[in-house]
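INFO worker-7 received task bundle
INFO bundle size: 2
INFO processing item 0
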Amino acid sequence: MLRELKTFIAVTRHGTFAAAGMHIGLTQSAVSAQIRQLEHVLGVQLFDRTGRQAILNAAGIRALPLAREILETFSRMAVPVDANEYRGELKVGAITTVQTGLLPQALVRLRQMAPAVECKLVPGVSLELLSQVDAGELDQAIIIRPPFDLPKELHVQVLRKEPFVLIVPNAVEGDDPLQLLNAHPHVRYDRASFGGRLVSQFLREQKLEVPVALELDELEAIVKMVECGLGISLIPHAGLWLERAAKIRVIPLDELTFHREIILLSRYSQRNLPVPQLFAQCLMAGADEA
């Protein structure tokens, strides 16, 4: 019945038998057959079949949390009790700042706790990695939380919140962020990126139209451009540049501060599997120490 319960949950997430089938790799008729089998075993109908939508009835609403509980209990039965029992490949996507921030120590912990697990790191930008998790090409990805609602089948775990700051060359005087943004060219965090969209929102809210000297998506490169005097920039307080004596001034935004959230993204169907769950624990341990 585990297969039928998974199909039942998929239908409730996607709203129709056809949409559920597309996401779990079954035809609409196969989904219908599995739901009929589940209803036959339970002795109750779970959906009001009106039109194309699959709407839960009272019995279905009661059954849904129990179905999730059964599947979660089953997945916990597979959790190894010994490190050598953790096996397989883990495909993890990560944005650049995470690759040199949270990720290294998390991978060290994972290696110590599960030496037989082979981890493959896939670099990329947040939108690209999100799509790969959604398509099942990655087990998990560490990305910036997007400024839009995620598909229901994706699970989010917040790892940390990073405040944005204003960085300016040492030679630039003044400490008022809004005055400086009005007076100097901007090395712009790429507007197409999730982090860059947060900057765009901030500038709109403050009714600022800043002259753009350059636009790019690499934080280390942005810092270097500011060091060289190309302009000033709004970036998250994160990255390798914090580990060296960068020739810039960092100006906090104080009450105007906004943040980007770094999240661990996975599919609901994968999040409680032993290896992804262990990796999430390793990441959270590092986030708690930061």
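INFO item 0 finished
INFO processing item 1
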Amino acid sequence: MDTCAPTSTRRLLGIDWGTSNRRAYLVDAAGTRLAERADDQGMLAARPDFAGSFARLLAAMDVDADVPVVASGMVGSAQGWRDIPYLDIGVPLEALPDCLVCIDDPRAGRPCLIVPGYAQRGAHVDVMRGEETQLLGAVALGRRDGWFVLPGTHSKWVLVEDGIMRRIATFMTGELFATLSAHGTLAPLMTGDDDDAAFVAGLDEARLGAPLSNALFGVRARVVTGAMPAAQARSFVSGLLVGAEFVAAGRAAPLTCIGSPALQARYARAAGHFGVTLAGLDPDRVYCAALARFLDRIPS
């Protein structure tokens, strides 16, 4: 691991720096949250002045000068502060603290250690940035084996065996749902409230295995022919997209969801419908558990 970061009195600031949003956590050696801050200064808003955005965040949180900083997510992408090379999925998650890359930009006021993402190569190419830190936290909390789903803009399904990722599969579920809600022929229909029966109907449609573009057009066809009320279209599409993930994954078990309470509830509903038992982990808890692992390996 790069050692250009200043040492601390066993505290660390971790920044989950995504595309649109950013969240920072100040933790102690046990991973206990001492302070946190969330803002809209994700990669898109911060570029090209990542150093300035970083310095303003630390000033706003009044972080002592001797506290090291670790950042994960899109900040380490080609569009981020610096393009950090991906690790191969064969690198154990517990080796992440030894693979941090230091950015020492004078404009930032102090160095920042960037967590690299992971790449899956071969027949099924896939990548992740940010989720690897949550998975390290899950491993730190004793979840060393099984399937994990990390829902969001790009939903990640990851098979972990003894703390090593064996397979990554990414689904553009959140992005597709947002795009369909805002643009195209389905957008005027995507305004209804949550409807559990319609969500389950969408799961059942996904189970039939029709090509997704065909199944999505079928939503409009149902509405215009009167086979489905327009108010149910939004939940039906949600069920169709989430269901497509479960159909592709098969009977992935044991399955753990790392996501917000709302997303955990939605995926638990789908998992139950597909005969899969799903356990939940709080994303803040796993992130802070990972930060404790990073801090443990930073020289004091």
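INFO item 1 finished
INFO post-check item 1: The mean pLDDT is 93.
INFO post-check item 1: Residues 251 and 275 are 8 Å apart (CA to CA).
INFO worker-7 idle
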